[in-house]
Write a structure and sequence with these properties.
This protein has one domain: Rossmann fold, CATH 3.40.50. It is about 40% helix and about 20% strand. It contains ten helices and seven strands. It has a seven-stranded mixed sheet, with helices on both faces. The longest helix has 17 residues.
């Protein structure tokens, strides 16, 4: 039994509610990690393509989703999304979780432009990014981040890229904030050596990490950490969706259709 961290569970629970509002179609996911978002979308009737720079990540995804790949529902690409040619069949959804913060300012803008090229006329961009610059810490350094976002900086990015910010909400507050000191301790102890790597190498390794009691838990912990027991905390994170202390920002955006033709 795979047990997910509390913050990951809360993010997936919020994402599930938002995805349930959409008609299933084609998705493109950038930086899929261990495939939890892909799994959520595939179970909801979507089919899609994922991009990741790290070979070990794409190999693990091919193993996990072998049946979906054989059925033509899922494609795994060990490529750079920013440099890939847009497909003839445009996507209804472009989605990423903890990806945009790894991009420098030019790449960040390029990401938005590339997403617009991939989306159909009615398509939607969904992003989850780290939030609250005041909480910058060891995990940001180890993961190779350039920034943490605020609702204001997110609004500024979408405006500069000529997109419309349709919806945004802070997630995981106050759970992740309470657990942050413990999280920082575990990361410092387990991954401090990664600081010697280049920012690109840290980015590549960030999709699949193995920090006991941070990213991985014994199976019996699933009795405590699951979607049923986390439901009250999910309601709580929604109640505090406008908190500036939230450590994750969820957003939905669409390209300006008028200027993009």
């Amino acid at each position: 039994m795979v047990v997910l961290p509390p913050g990951t569970l809360l993010q997936l629970m919020y994402l599930q509610e938002r995805v349930d509002r959409l008609k299933p179609g084609r998705f493109v996911e950038i930086g899929p990690g261990n495939g939890e978002i892909s799994s959520l979308l595939l179970k909801a009737g979507w089919q899609g393509t994922v991009f990741d720079l790290e070979t070990s990540t794409t190999d693990a995804l091919k193993q996990r989703f072998g049946e979906e790949i054989r059925r033509g529902k899922y494609t795994v690409r060990n490529d750079d999304f920013l440099e890939a040619d847009p497909p003839e069949n445009k996507a209804d959804l472009v989605i990423s979780c903890m990806v945009m913060e790894h991009l420098d300012a030019d790449q960040e803008l390029n990401y938005m432009q590339q997403a617009a090229r991939y989306l159909s006329d009615e398509g939607l961009l969904i992003g989850l990014v780290p939030a609250s610059p005041n909480h910058w810490g060891i995990e940001d350094e180890i993961a190779g981040h350039f920034r943490r976002y605020t609702s204001a900086s997110l609004a500024d990015l979408t405006k500069r890229a000529d997109w419309n910010l349709e919806h945004h909400s802070g997630l995981t507050f106050p759970v992740s904030n309470v657990l942050l000191p413990v999280s920082n301790f575990l990361v410092q102890r387990a991954e401090n050596s990664k600081l010697e790597l280049s920012k690109l190498e840290r980015t590549k390794l960030s999709g699949n990490r193995n920090v006991k009691f941070k990213t991985h838990f014994p199976g019996f912990i699933g009795i405590i950490l699951n979607r049923v027991t986390m439901r009250p905390l999910h309601w709580l994170q929604k109640a505090f969706g406008r908190s500036k202390k939230a450590l994750v920002l969820y957003f939905e955006a669409t390209p300006n259709r008028t200027s993009n033709g």
